[in-house]
């Protein structure tokens, strides 16, 4: 990956984070009036803050994404057999999803039962959809790593929101972090093969597509 391609991924991921955070924040404010700070007169200030937070979330998501790519590279060299690393990722993904359910169940009195049921189901469904899309863009081997990224890495990145402040866990804070992080991670994993493939590979793929058409 060249510096120019990395910079493109960097600023576009931050833009995705800013957009997803803004949409999430505005939707949450419309549904819960208590979340609207400074009232309608401070709408511009609220928007600026949400965009700023979204840019930080985008940058944080990219740090997690490149950390996963590094771990993935090291693991493949350690395990030698790619299916062993895939099996470990699959086990970790199932475990992480179960642990997420446990954490939400423990904090259900503060966050509510809606989050307890909705978040794991939505996260698993989104991860499955992104994984299926990734296999269509590349190959079937990309399915489990994509699930791992979307569930395990996203949950780790959003972990501070599960801790709350002063022991108070907020469902709004969890959604506010999980949605933009999931959007950023989905964008990065689906864009990776496009920005890392060489022109020769793109031409070969186009030629294969022309022959099969």
Automatic annotation (TrEMBL):
- Give GO BP annotations, semicolon-separated: positive regulation of sporulation resulting in formation of a cellular spore
Where is coiled-coil annotated?
none
Q: Which residues constitute the signal peptide according to the record? A: none
InterPro entries, per database record: KinB-signalling_activ
Asked if Iron is a keyword of the record, the answer is: no
Record field: transmembrane: 7-28, 48-71, 83-105, 111-130, 142-162, 174-192
Tell me which UniProt keywords the record has, alphabetically. Answer: Membrane, Transmembrane, Transmembrane helix
SMART domains attached to this UniProt entry: KbaA (SM01251)
Q: What is this protein called?
A: KinB signaling pathway activation protein
Source organism = Paenibacillus pasadenensis
